Amino acid sequence: MIELHQSSPCWGLPDLSPFCIKLHTYFRIAKLPYEVSRELTFQDAPKGKTPFIRYNNKLIGDSNLIIDYLNKTLEIDPNENLSHEEKGVSLAFIRLIEENLYWGLIYYIYKVEDNWLSYRTILEELILKQFPESIRNQILEELYDQIVKQLWGHGMGRHSEPEIYEIGKRDLCALSDFLGNKPFFMGEKATTLDAAAYGFLSRLMYDSLPSSLKEEALKLDNLQLFCERVRAEFYTQQETKAWNVQIGS
């Protein structure tokens, strides 16, 4: 059995992290049985962060490396019906989502003050309860500093908010234009690209943190319908209801 190690569900989603949501969706597209385990902690994570899995007593981190490992080990491939050209396009869109659009999402979480204050509360209630109250603030401050440095190092954090919005808007429009009227990004069947896209688009559209980037995503009807389609096909109403964690209750 595949053990998935993550942080915590929220907003009707299986996890706070879009990379974890991506893996949940990939497992379901690939029809792989798995379970969420709380046995291991961040200290056990091979890359020092979630998600990571344990399979056959081996720990693997990074969502893309996990998918590559399972595809090879279990001899499966949700992309097997794609041509070489389509596989290249799929990979390019995954890179757009994870290496560019992701950092726009991160900017609005950490660098918009009201959003960061709200997200701090979420992290404290859902993730940090295992730690003594006396050190939670230190952990959050260190996390904030680390993420802001990563934003700057990536380059997204060097832009103004209007510039970041325009960058994210172009990414969202490119995804919308390519999806068009297709049920999934590469056609009739869901592939790895759909897992990645759902992870990030659902996190952007369904969370409780306002941003101009979210407003732009919600204007693109086919992206909304895509998220609804993936949720309806690969998740149950009971699951999403259970994951609708109420903060402060």
TrEMBL record:
Top-rank lineage group of the source organism: Bacteria
Entry-linked InterPro entries: FAX/IsoI-like, Glutathione-S-Trfase_C_sf, Glutathione_S-Trfase, Metaxin_GST, Mito_Protein_Transport_Metaxin, Thioredoxin-like_fold, Thioredoxin-like_sf
Ranges for domain Metaxin glutathione S-transferase: 168-230
One Pfam family it belongs to: GST_N_4
Thioredoxin-like fold domain: residues covered: 18-114
A GO cellular component entry from the record: cytoplasm
PANTHER family (alphabetical): FAILED AXON CONNECTIONS-RELATED, METAXIN RELATED
The protein's name: Glutathione S-transferase family protein
The species this protein was found in: Symplocastrum torsivum CPER-KK1
